[in-house]
Amino acid sequence: MAIRRFHHFLCCLPLRLGVLVLSFLGFWGALASCAIEWLKFAYIQRHNGDGRFSNGDRTFTIVLGIVYGILAFITLFGFIGAITSLKSENHFDRLKPSVQVPIFRRQLQPPEYLETLL
């Protein structure tokens, strides 16, 4: 069985751009989840005198906050790695549209009858 290498992400974007987009979205999602968990922990600490929250709730919130923080840290490194990979291999040319108007691809030549007038 042959190994097939894919060079596109979602059938149209280059693979490295897809990694860049996914790591960017993953970082902000993990960072937002981490912030929500730590805000929830602060709320539990403030209102723990009511007896509404058990020690398991508090422990679970701390563990989730740490896990989301580690995930944000890891995806940040993925984002930085994707940017440096794009810069080092000069893949920014691939991000330009591949369809070009024929006029811009070649220089326009003056008509032949102008040469006879000069």
Number of strands: 2
Compute the gyration radius: what is it? Answer: 27 Å
Distance between the termini: 67 Å
Write the element-wise H/E pattern from the N-terminal end onward.
EEHHHH
Structure description:
64% of the residues lie in helices and 3% in strands. The mean pLDDT is 76. The protein is elongated, with a radius of gyration of 27 Å. It has helices spanning 15-46, 55-88, 102-105, 112-117; strands at residues 8-9, 13-14. The chain contains four helices and two strands, in the order ββαααα. The protein has a two-stranded antiparallel sheet. By secondary structure, it is mainly alpha-helical. It has a domain at 30-88.
Features:
single chain; mainly alpha; elongated
Quick take:
The chain is mainly α and 118 residues long. The chain contains four helices and two strands. It is elongated, with a radius of gyration of 27 Å.
